[in-house]
Design brief:
Elements (H helix, E strand, L loop, with lengths): L6 E5 L4 H12 L3 E6 L4 H13 L3 E5 L5 H15 L4 E4 L14 H22 L8 E5 L12 H21 L5 E7 L10 H10 L8 H12 L10 E4 L4
Parallel strand pairs: 1-2, 1-4, 2-3, 4-5, 5-6, 6-7
Helix pairs in contact: 1-2, 1-7, 3-4, 4-5
Length: 241
């Protein structure tokens, strides 16, 4: 799955699934601009890994809930390349709060980061995209099943499904595809408590949690020409949970 010459923008790319996506796209030959909200060690080590892979890449600090930061981020792509071929919306936020106690501020923080920012990034990037462009939104399996204490997170991820389908209908005539990848439980560097891992082991048909790299390879497939007739799909990558 080669992406030589392709130019990619990935939001939320410093940690976890986002980091795996950035590195997989780069290894496939794409040039990547990505962002992290806080910078720090994760961003610094990502820069070093991208340098080791080679190619033209950039790790920016940006808060995608702020329009001015989105403008700067997309502007960086325009300055470097003059176009964008791939947009991966991975930035998200999560918390665990009983719905009866969920404050409006926390609702807006999670929904704005996971849903509204995705729409705004796509809208801002569209003038730089053309025939053969691919947009991949990172959703979640919970969008269609729900989960306690995460009504705001589930609502944001469910909204991404509708956004993806609507944009599929609007952008198809321009030759731009829009798909969604919905991961199930995934091991990240933050770690998972043993009791949670055991619960997922019983729930997931494959008997284990996923790895970020297993999500990233699906994104890379959707980003390239091998998936040229896949459009408007939600692809669950969940081990059969």
């Amino acid at each position: 799955m080669r992406l030589d010459g392709k130019k990619a923008l990935v939001t939320g790319g410093a940690r976890g699934i986002g980091r795996a996506i950035v590195l997989d796209l780069a290894r496939a030959g794409a040039s990547v601009v990505t962002c992290t909200r806080q910078g720090g060690e994760a961003a610094q080590t990502l820069v070093k890994e991208l340098q080791a892979i080679g190619g033209e890449h950039h790790v920016a600090t940006a808060d995608v809930t702020k329009q001015e930061d989105i403008d700067t981020l997309v502007g960086e792509c325009e300055r470097r390349w003059g176009r964008i071929d791939i947009v991966v919306n991975n930035a998200g936020a999560i918390s665990h709060v009983p719905f009866a106690e969920l404050q409006a501020e926390e609702w807006h923080r999670v929904v704005n980061t996971g849903l509204t920012a995705t729409a705004m990034v796509i809208q801002r990037a569209l003038p730089l995209m053309g025939q053969g462009g691919s947009i991949v939104n990172i959703g979640s399996k919970v969008a269609t099943v729900g989960i306690p204490l995460r009504a705001h997170y589930t609502a944001a991820k469910a909204g991404l499904i509708g956004l993806t389908r609507s944009l599929t209908k609007e952008l198809g005539e321009r030759g731009i595809r829009v798909n969604l990848v919905a991961p199930g439980p995934v091991e990240t560097e933050a770690g998972v408590p043993d009791e949670v891992r055991e619960r997922y082991r019983r729930l997931i048909a494959l008997g284990r949690m996923g790895r970020p790299e297993e999500i990233a390879t699906v994104v890379t497939f959707l980003a390239g020409d091998l998936s040229a007739f896949i459009n408007g799909e939600t692809i669950n990558v969940d081990g059969g949970i």
